[in-house]
């Protein structure tokens, strides 16, 4: 465990039913809002309420609704430039991780500032220029809790994180109504992404008392609420709890760091454009099986916290936790391999090469991951 650690959080977080109304309070004193969102979120009608409330509060509103999912640096740069043209002095991001991450980049890049490429090269040069409000519509990435923005880097065929505390949101609203109609498949894979954040951070070399607190709470909430939140549009309490869990997962990323699940999943997103949630969901079980022996104590603690039945010792508990994880993934119909995504055995060596480039995250994994290990882990999901 780290000897020194710190906790950084967004400015103010509003949570629970009806918290969307807080928009009028958060935007007070501002003139014009740029509402970042995307087509899927707009089609679901989720931009309507924030826009109405911002207008009611007297702000002029401009909608930036054509953001692509999981943008690369060029696409993110275009969004930043579009934002500059709006002349807005307030940003409201209404969407999943893709939308929130793009909004964060805009918040440190206007009215004049560095380009996305410059930020990739040196993230710390950025300064917050525009106040941000994040309203997640997936539960989720936890991006609303982190100082990170993830972009695809086409020439490296992977994704990279731009990390700077200046990108921590000023305000966050977690309201279950925003994920009420979230399609089941997206709810399942993004929920497993949140679970991966918590499990990886709890077992990370960077784990510490702050990250453990939030990661463990996220795990309890996810194991209890993910299935009902996915299956029942009316399960608003479960959805509110999933939004909390995703937020806690984000806090644990900020305080600790993800490990080999995210490390080996990044090339699946960067090279094969598999959605972030799905890429992590596919890699989660193989990597956690690989980590079991090294992380036995942590797995056993999680098993106990989830109210697992008495078991002989830490080893048995760690196996049982893996069984619970597998049962949950099956119930959510998470794919166990990559055959439906156009990735085959012929891609193995490219994946190993790109995966081993992710040393920032692989280095957080308690069990060392060699190229041979990465090859075996990818082979498990390439049938
Ligand atoms: N910044 C961070 O800390 C952090 C952490 C993890 C992941 N990420 C990044 O976040 C991105 C993924 O974000 P995501 O998993 O939230 O997905 P996403 O934002 O890419 O959205 C996925 C799809 O779901 C649709 N959608 C979102 N909310 C909806 C709703 N309520 N109803 C109907 N459709 C909806 C979107 O339109 C989109 O088509 C990736 O780029 C990933 O790398 C960032
Ligand atoms: Zn993730």
Features:
Rossmann fold, two-stranded antiparallel ribbon, Dehydroquinate synthase-like, alpha domain, 50% helix, single chain, 2 domains, 383 residues, binds zinc ion, alpha/beta, binds nicotinamide-adenine-dinucleotide, 6-stranded parallel beta sheet, globular
If you had to describe this structure to a student in words, what would you say it looks like?
- Helix content is 50%, strand content 11%.
- By secondary structure, it is α/β, with parallel strands linked by helices.
- The two termini are 37 Å apart.
- The strands form two sheets. The protein has a six-stranded parallel beta sheet, with helices on both faces.
- Strand 6 (148-153) and strand 7 (158-163) form a beta hairpin.
- It has two domains: 12-179, Rossmann fold; 184-381, Dehydroquinate synthase-like, alpha domain.
- Helix 4 (73-86) packs across helix 5 (97-107), helix 10 (260-272) packs antiparallel against helix 11 and helix 14 crosses helix 16 (371-381).
- The chain is globular and about 60 Å long.
- It has helices spanning 23-26, 39-43, 48-56, 73-86, 97-107, 116-121, 184-202, 209-231, 236-255, 260-272, 276-291, 296-305, 314-331, 348-356, 359-362, 371-381, and strands spanning 12-15, 32-36, 60-64, 90-95, 131-136, 148-153, 158-163, 171-174.
- Bound molecules: nicotinamide-adenine-dinucleotide (NAD) and zinc ion (ZN).
- The site of zinc ion (ZN) has 6 residues, from helix 7 and helix 11.
Helix content: 40-55%
What count of helical segments does DSSP give? 16
Radius of gyration: 20 Å
Q: What's the N-to-C terminus distance?
A: 37 Å
Helix and strand composition category: alpha/beta
CATH architecture of the largest domain: Up-down Bundle
Record field, number of beta strands? 8
What order do the SSEs take from the amino end to the carboxyl end, as H and E?
A: EHEHHEHEHHEEEEHHHHHHHHHH
Unreliable residue stretches: none
Mean pLDDT: 95
Largest sheet: 6 strands, parallel
Number of domains: 2
- Relevant CATH superfamily of the largest domain: Dehydroquinate synthase-like - alpha domain
Say what the CATH topology of the largest domain is: Dehydroquinate synthase-like, alpha domain
């Amino acid at each position: 465990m780290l000897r020194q650690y710190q906790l950084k959080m967004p400015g103010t977080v509003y949570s629970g039913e009806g918290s969307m109304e807080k928009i009028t309070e958060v935007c007070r004193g501002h003139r014009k809002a740029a509402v970042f969102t995307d087509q899927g979120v707009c089609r679901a009608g989720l931009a309507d309420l924030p826009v109405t409330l911002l207008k009611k509060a007297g702000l002029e509103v401009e909608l930036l609704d054509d953001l692509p999912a999981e943008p690369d640096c060029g696409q993110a740069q275009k969004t930043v430039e579009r934002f500059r043209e709006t002349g807005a002095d307030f940003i409201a991001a209404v969407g999943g991780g893709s939308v929130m991450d793009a909004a964060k980049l805009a918040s440190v890049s206007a009215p004049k500032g560095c380009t996305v490429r410059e930020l990739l090269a040196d993230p710390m040069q950025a300064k917050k220029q525009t106040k941000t409000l994040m309203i997640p519509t997936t539960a989720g990435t936890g991006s609303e809790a982190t100082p990170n923005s993830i972009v695809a880097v086409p020439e490296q065929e992977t994704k990279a994180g731009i990390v700077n505390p200046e990108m921590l949101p000023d305000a966050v609203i977690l309201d279950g109504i925003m994920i009420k109609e979230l399609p089941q498949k997206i709810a399942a894979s993004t929920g497993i992404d949140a679970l991966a954040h918590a499990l990886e951070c709890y077992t990370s070399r960077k784990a510490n008392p702050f990250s453990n607190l939030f990661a463990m709470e996220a795990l309890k909430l996810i194991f209890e609420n993910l299935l009902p939140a996915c299956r029942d549009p009316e399960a608003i309490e479960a959805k509110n709890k999933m939004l909390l869990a995703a937020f806690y997962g984000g806090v644990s990323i900020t305080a600790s760091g993800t490990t080999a699940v995210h490390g080996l999943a990044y090339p699946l997103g960067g090279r094969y454009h598999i959605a972030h949630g799905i890429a992590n969901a596919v890699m989660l079980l193989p990597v956690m099986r690989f980590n079991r022996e090294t992380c036995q104590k942590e797995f056993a603690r999680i098993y106990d916290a989830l109210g697992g039945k008495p078991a002989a010792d830490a080893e048995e508990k760690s196996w049982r936790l893996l069984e619970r994880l597998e049962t949950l993934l099956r119930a959510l119909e998470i794919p166990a391999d990559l055959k439906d995504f156009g990735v085959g055995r012929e891609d193995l060596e490219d994946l190993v090469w790109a995966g081993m480039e992710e040393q920032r995250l692989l280095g957080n994994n308690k069990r060392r991951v060699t190229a041979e290990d990465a090859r075996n882990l990818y082979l498990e999901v390439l049938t």
